[in-house]
Amino acid sequence: MKSVAAVLTASFLLVGCANSEPDWDLAVKPLFVFQTLKAAQGWQQGTPALATCTPSRSGHQHICQLRDNQVAGAKTEATEALFDDEGLRALHVAWPLQDYAAVAGELTAAYGTPCSQATTNVRGPQYSTLSNVVTIWCFREGAMTLEKYAGNRDTVRLTYSSERASLVPSENRLQIL
């Protein structure tokens, strides 16, 4: 696992969708589907894709690990899905940096043209500059973000967040270490 924890909030994820295509009708945006997980589906229906699920103290949320550690043709380092009473709320998947091109290609083939993509400079090892690519796909009920340099700069991270995720208290948001 990585030594740097990162917490991604829905507000960051949804900014790309809100600003990139303001005239795009929500009715024509696709429903989010990842492997056999669907946005409006509960954790019980997602069990073929889930290895283990742990209920929250309230029993209204479940944090689950994905069964398949091969996603987009590459071995994952970490996977988590968060479900609430209304279905899939958030999904986090992490890969080693060397798998970025394969993962980005598979996601674009599966989900089509992203609704937003930005490149920023981030500090790399020995004061080098790295070009961080952040790609966002928009869906009816949320957004999926692929970040090239996440965490300690050697991890690729995919995060899906439903619009409901912005209502979650920060202490209940998923973290990938």
Features:
2 helices, two-stranded antiparallel sheet, 41% strand, 177 residues, mainly beta, 8-stranded antiparallel beta sheet, disordered C terminus, globular
Shape: globular
Distance between the termini: 6 Å
Uncertain stretches: 1-24, 167-177
Q: How many domains? A: 1
Fraction of residues in helix: 10-25%
Strand count, sense and closure of the main sheet? 8 strands, antiparallel
Radius of gyration equals 16 Å
Q: What class would the helix/strand composition place it in? A: mainly beta
Number of helices: 2
Beta-strand percentage?
35-45%
Protein name: Lipoprotein
Keywords: Signal
Signal peptide: 1-20
Strand-helix topology:
Blueprint: H1 10-20, E1 33-34, E2 37-38, E3 50-55, E4 62-66, E5 70-71, E6 74-75, E7 78-84, E8 87-96, H2 100-111, E9 116-123, E10 129-139, E11 142-150, E12 155-162
Antiparallel strand pairs: 1-2, 3-4, 4-7, 5-6, 7-8, 8-12, 9-10, 10-11, 11-12
